[in-house]
Amino acid sequence: MLLTDPVVLENEHVRLEPLRADHAGELQRAREGLQYAWYTSVPSDASADIIHRLAERDGGRMNPFAVVVGGVAVGMTTFCTIDLDSPRVEIGYTWLSPTVQRTGVNTAAKLLLLGHAFEQCHVIAVQFCTHWHNRQSRAAIERLGAKQDGVLRNHRVGPDGTLRDTVVYSILPHEWPTVKQGLRARLR
């Protein structure tokens, strides 16, 4: 199985389904009330973001998912920076409605994504990236069991022209069994 293949991933907490245009209404409602700092980004227009992510999918660079709880799309997450030759992938561009934050939905989604990447797609690494100033995201990535690889200084130019230092984390195949055990324990 390839990282770019459309697939539904599901457990008792969450369903990850291939992102579709008809998720737009629910996702637009899901983003209401999100309070994000200057160093994060959540799409203001769900329809436009879906169009962008689907174009990236069609180009083989991204495999986007709608995060569905109780039959309703409550956020998005993505396999991105896909390298089929190595093979390796980044999990990113994730955002969740305030109604499901701190409920285990993100942990359950990451368990599904990581399991699929390591067990079905046989990747050599899963990467996570975040802004240096996004301490909440950094802590969440570390709670997953990812290890910090380093900091890419002046890695990106933000929409406002500021330079972003990106913190890079990864999980490797030999670490996955322990990470999986930790994620399952957190969900119990």
Report the total helices.
5
Quick one: biggest sheet?
8 strands, mixed
Instruction: Specify the oligomeric state.
Output: single chain
CATH topology: the name is Aminopeptidase
CATH hierarchy class name: Alpha Beta
User: Could you tell me the radius of gyration in angstroms?
Assistant: 16 Å
Number of strands: 8
Mean pLDDT: 94
Instruction: List low-pLDDT spans.
Output: none
Q: Give me the strand/helix succession.
A: EEHHEEEHEHEEH
Question: Can you list the strand order of the major beta sheet?
Answer: 1-2-3-4-5-6-8-7
Q: Shape, please?
A: globular
CATH superfamily label:
Gcn5-related N-acetyltransferase (GNAT)
What portion of residues belong to β-strands? 25-35%
Q: Give the end-to-end Cα distance, rounded to a whole number of Å.
A: 29 Å
State the helical fraction. 25-40%
From the helix content, strand content and strand pairing, which structural class follows? alpha+beta
**CATH architecture level-2 label:** 3-Layer(aba) Sandwich
